[in-house]
Amino acid sequence: MGRYVIRRLLQMIPVFIGATLLIFLMVNVMGDPIAGLCGDKACDPATKAQLSKEFGLDKPVWQQYLTYMGNVFTGDFGTAFNGQKVTELMSTAFPVTIRLTIVAILFEIVVGITLGVITGLRRGRPIDTTVLLLTLVVISIPTFVTGLLLQLLLGVKWGWIEPAVSTEATFSELIVPGLVLASVSLAYVTRLTRTSIAENKRADYVRTAIAKGLPRRRVITRHLLRNSLIPVVTFIGADVGALMGGAIVTERIFNIHGVGYQLYQGILRQNTQTVVGFVTILVLVFLAVNLIVDLLYAVLDPRIRYA
Amino acid sequence: MRGATHAKWAAGAVAVALAATACGGGGDSGGGGDGSGIVRSSWGDPQNPLEPANTNEVQGGKVLDMIFRGLKRYDPKTGEAKDMLAEKIDTSDSQNFTITVKKGWTFSNGEKVTAKSFVDAWNYGASLKNNQKNAYFFGQIDGYDKVHPESGSQSADTLSGLKVTGDDTFTVKLNQKFSTWPDTLGYAAFAPLPKMFFDDHDAYIKKPVGNGPYTVDSYQKGSQMSLRKWDKYPGDDKAQNSGVDLKVYTDNNTAYTDLTAGNLDLVDDVPAAQLANVKSDLDGRYINTPAGIIQTLAFPFYDSDWNKADSDKVRKGLSMAINRKQITDSIFEKTRTPATDWTSPVLGEKGGYKEGLCGEFCDYNPAEAKKMIQEGGGIPGGQVQIGYNADTGSHKEWVDAVCNSINNALGNDKACVGSPTGTFADFRNKITDKKMTGPFRAGWQMDYPLIQNFLQPLYYTNASSNDGHWSNKEFDSLVDKANAESDQAQAVKIFQQAQEVVRDNMAAIPLWYQNGSAGYSDKVDNVALNPFSVPVYNEIKVK
Question: Where does the record place the ABC transmembrane type-1 domain (chain A) (predicted)?
């Protein structure tokens, strides 16, 4: 197993380099960012040259990439155009987005799996049909509609929540945005769990467990659910990365200054350092979560071994 | 047991992954809150560090306006340049100025504001090695070409035209006559800087120190700045509230929602989508006043197709084919006013604004438009492509409307199309690289309320913002003459003559003057926008 982990970690290196290079090239194709810094006026050529030199934009792209990667390995992600260190931006943006992601994932796990189990066990009953219809509705409505609607109703009309999240972005403030962010995945988790449970309900080992006289609760949680969770865990794992990177819409609506917002600003201002830095970290998160998911398989099903 | 070891491994991997990927220190500290007397206002993340000579957009400018006072200040209502820290500014030849700074002013950290505070700040702003984006504001001062050469490295660190002659006096020598130069000194780039700016620059950037009615209490970059009233402020424009909290919003729609929910007191950028219902939403607490901003269409004069002998007729024809009134009414909900000259109404008649100077060329007249364009040899290439950037400012809507208007007038639905560029930076790149092939959007926000500022930077040969590279000897000589004229009223008159040259050549099509629009809550009072469309924060009263 140790060897497996090391092999997986080594595999991450080419993925990491490839992904960062791609992002680097893509941001570069967008053109020279300095021109946008002077507003509607033209930058004077001397200042422009000086700025290009400072940000290293006067060198060929491959050289910029090598310098950048060299710096990244020493923990230096460069400087954003407003003079702030990218690491500083990360230290304010990532904790917020991580909190938001945790809230979203918790919703997926707690609500999604619970609903999935309930409907899976009562297939074809009214509750199953109701939940299925509900999930269909949730999946078909775009996130920004749900977000704006909840903001308007809960925030402005009824005054239950603040429409915009404050700078601190505490867990309690993030509940509604987290629910909005999770909504679509939540529906998928429910449906995945339901199918998986319904399928395994008739498996031999469940019949054996019932025949042994085990309490129903134990049969469901230890035997049925545990074996049904593999596809769900895969989905949730992949979703962690997607949620962190894809929170742009939710973060904009609820005024959350997280990763999505910084990425959006970075792209708008064509700030290579910010965009590449944040994406680099997101790639790492993605890779790490994938590794964890793979390792979790063995916990759920001991027959899966890693040589 | 097998399961247990797996679990241990998995837990280990989780720990490693978390340590590797996440969590720099959180540590957001709460600043201020909405205690009594505090105005809560929306804000956008400033693009550049908050140095006076490095701030060229509204969001950073807002803060500078609160924490700095310069030699002059523009009256928030009339835009007139009035002495602030300047005791007097003397000149006999419109080229050599002696400036006396008022006594008794200090920075909020206790340092005295002296002549040196200004000279040091200006030298810093002009110096090429400091990368200040507003450095060109010091371009009129003698010796600028040494500290900020167009290429190569600088041969001097200080401007030879600046000399400290006493504690409170300094002299300025300009490299040419410029009679209205003292009136430019209200611009933020000319603010004085405390010694700590130079001694501990990092500390300044974290928490700027100035000499204005407010001090920075806390600043979390990208999310919030809390400004508090400075009790020892010596000026007579003291803050009427106890402070301002500027909150960065990811989207101005969210800010607007927060205003309607009562969590915000002031939004100075009402989203376009809300303009239709803002009056009923806010019960009249909506401001829509002219600002010193004009939108024009510039032409690529470097493209010979657009610069033929009769091309001015084509440009005039295009101008007459645009139904300005309809577009400003329907698309902008009257937050723009159809332009009839190349300046702005905020200048006032005394300042050089002349309603109707454009004359018939800015009136919608489809029949005449068609005739003019035909006389001028038709549209080059058979199609006008109006360039704009698609990422911000919803320019697509009005560009499409302008094209629609032109197409209708010409009776040809392919006569005009919009030509979007993905990002603003790329759009600017195309302009500076002279790659535009048709007319393109050009916005101008004034730096200071002078007619000179609406003409010289935009239409003078090789001027900094002459994006179309239009060049006209008559115009240039009139501008030179106006700048040398010591009588203000006379200077304005000559500038208007220069503007007539712009009209006769239709160097750029004036589209509309832009208004500032703001909404505020019922908890605040006395809210107004200045001619730069920035709220006059120090006069806001909290109920």
Answer: 94-297
Burial of A140 (0-12, 13-18, 19+ CB in 10 A): exposed
Nearest CB neighbour to A168, from listed B14, B30, B392: B30
Radius of gyration of chain A from Cα atoms?
A: 24
% pLDDT > 70, chain A = 100
**A1-11 exposure pattern, b = at least 16 Cβ within 10 A, e = fewer:** eeebbeebeee
Give the Å distances, CA to CA, from A268 to B72, B131, B321.
Answer: 35, 22, 34
Q: Would you call B217 exposed, middle or buried from its count of C-beta atoms within 10 A (0-12, 13-18, 19+)? A: middle
Q: What tokens appear for B173 in the block?
A: 């020598």
User: What does the alpha-carbon distance between residue B240 and residue B389 come to, in Å, rounded to a whole number?
Assistant: 40
3-state DSSP helix/strand/coil % of chain B, to nearest 5 = 40, 20, 40
pLDDT one-digit tens code per residue, B383-440? 999 999 987 777 899 999 999 999 999 999 899 999 998 888 888 888 988 999 999 9
Q: What is the DSSP letter of B393?
A: T
Provide the CB-side half-sphere exposure for B460 (13 A, CA).
Answer: 18
- In angstroms, how far apart are the furthest CA atoms of chain A? 84
The residue of chain A with its CA nearest to that of B12 is: A292
Contact B177, B227 (CB under 8 A): no
- Are A95 and B149 in contact (CB < 8 Å)? no
Angstroms from A40 CA to nearest CA on chain B:
7
CA B302 to chain CA centroid, nearest Å: 26
Kindly list the residues from chain B whose CB atom is less than 8 angstroms away from the CB atom of residue A149.
none
- Candidates A96, A146, A104, A151; CA nearest to A261 is A96
CB contact at 8 A, B483 and B179: yes
Asked whether the beta carbons of B146 and B68 are under 8 A apart, the reply is no
Contacts 24+ apart (CB under 8 A), B55-60: B55/B133, B55/B134, B55/B188, B55/B189, B56/A38, B56/A39, B56/A41, B56/B133, B56/B134, B57/A39, B58/B445, B58/B532, B58/B533, B58/B534
Which chain A residue lies closest to B464 (C-alpha atoms)?
A42
Phi, psi of A168 (to 5 degrees): -70, -30
Asked if A170 reaches chain B (Cβ–Cβ under 8 Å), the answer is no
Tens digit of pLDDT for each residue in A241-296?
Answer: 888 887 888 999 999 999 988 888 888 888 888 888 898 888 888 888 888 888 88
Asked if A43 lies within 8 A of B467 by C-beta distance, the reply is no
Q: Please compute the mean of the pLDDT values over residues B481-487 and round it to a whole number.
A: 91
Q: How far is B387 from chain A (nearest CA, A)?
A: 14
- What pLDDT sits at residue A307? 59
CB-based contact A50 B129, cutoff 8 Å: yes
Both structure tokens of B22: 């996440």
Nearest CA in chain B to A251: B250
Write the ipTM. Answer: 0.84
CA nearest to B222 within chain A: A257
B520 DSSP β-pair partners: B266
pLDDT above 90 covers what percent of chain B? Answer: 69
Whether A292 and chain B come into contact, CB under 8 Å, resolves to yes
Strand (E) or helix (H) holding B218? strand B214-220
Average pLDDT over residues B81-103: 93
Say if B202 is an interface residue toward chain A (CB within 8 Å). Answer: no
